[in-house]
Design brief:
single chain; alpha+beta; SH3 type barrels; 4 domains; six-stranded mixed sheet; five-stranded antiparallel sheet; 11 helices; 27 strands; binds zinc ion; SH3-like_bac-type; cell wall biogenesis/degradation; signal; MurNAc-LAA_cat; hydrolase
Length: about 450
Amino acid sequence: MKRGGWLAAWFCLCWIAALAWPTGAEGEKEKTERFVVVTTDEVNVRQGPGVPYRSVAIVHRGETYASVAEEGGWMKIRWKSGQIGWLAATYAAPVERMEKVTVDKLRLRQQPRFDGRVIGYLWQGDQVAVIQEEGKWKKVVSDDAVGWVAASYLTAVEAAGAAQTGVVTVDSLNVRTAPTLEAERIGRLGQGDGVEIVAAKRGWYQIKTRSGLEGWAVAEYIKTDGKQAPGADNEDAASAMAVEARFASLSKQAPGSYMYSWTRAPIQVLAGKTIVLDAGHGGKDGGAQSADGIMEKALTIKTAERLKQKLEKLGARVVLTRTGDDYVPLSARVAAARLYQADAFISLHYDSAEDPAASGITVYYYDRFADYGLAQSFQGPFSQLAALPFRGVAFGDYYVLRENEQPSVLLELGYLSNRSDAATAATDGYQEAVTTAIAAAVKQYFE
Ligand SMILES: [Zn+2]
């Protein structure tokens, strides 16, 4: 972003902040929230109420989100674990209620009439958002389309967290990561096994077992008893819908990330994520240099290569802005972030200062919205590093951050101008510890 643009954005930011947090009214505001459903194929969630704001996420048709405010044709929504974003109001509709389809192959029509053109089908158990009613017809939003269905084939979604229980009726029933036979199998149930049914979709149940197995199984092989699951939370309808919405958004992600967010396996948590690692300096640009002749450019590439392996082990696609001792202009480094649509851009550096006592690690961000969350996730892992002190998270006006449209941070991983820092930084032990900490931060950011 250009400096002028940034200033303008900052100005708007203050203004939004003033709107969003009126003195003492925050609690009130939370209570008045309602739900909206996305009505178009896919649409950007932005940092502010306008197209010039950066997109922070893409949401899809049928997903429901808590709407906390509206202004000038934009809806402020909570789109993920409490994060706030803005959605153009034309691509969403207020949800009157969530309802469940009671028959298979229910026709979804373009108009509220029996001779209305059929534009899709709904299946028993599908949950849809009702956005309008007309006589004996209800306009609903499913994942695939927005249309009208005969109201008599819809029923209220039982009061919320009212999870049902069921019993497996076959010898061996696969549990999968998604409601499709192509989805990866993550477990198996046997005849008589009890499950808690969290949701239903197209002939599938999303189930949970006492042992902690969570996933999808073919509904046909689970007999429900209609009783509420023991220990099920008595959440209200709103939070159940929020869960549903979160789930719907998960199912649209790359299969890998989807699966692992379910099973919480320690590996592959970064599947579907692209991380661009930028080893600072290179070629004719050596960067800082220690009294003993340790070059910053040589250290940063070492760090980048080690970190790449760690992130790849977690399932990420990792792109390096340089792989050898090459000179790469700053603009090309930023271009890589854009080209590969980086989910995170991490620039690796080692510091230098006139004060030979200056020591430790610093995390820099530029954009208060796009970068700060990423920067914050380093707080924990770096604080726990014993080798060097953590100086904290700070604003930094660096080209690779300022001109970067992707979430980006610049890490200064120790002072080469400090004898002790430099000696530490060059060790394998430090390289291992610091890359482990960075990987932990990235993991935390995406969790
Ligand atoms: Zn540097």
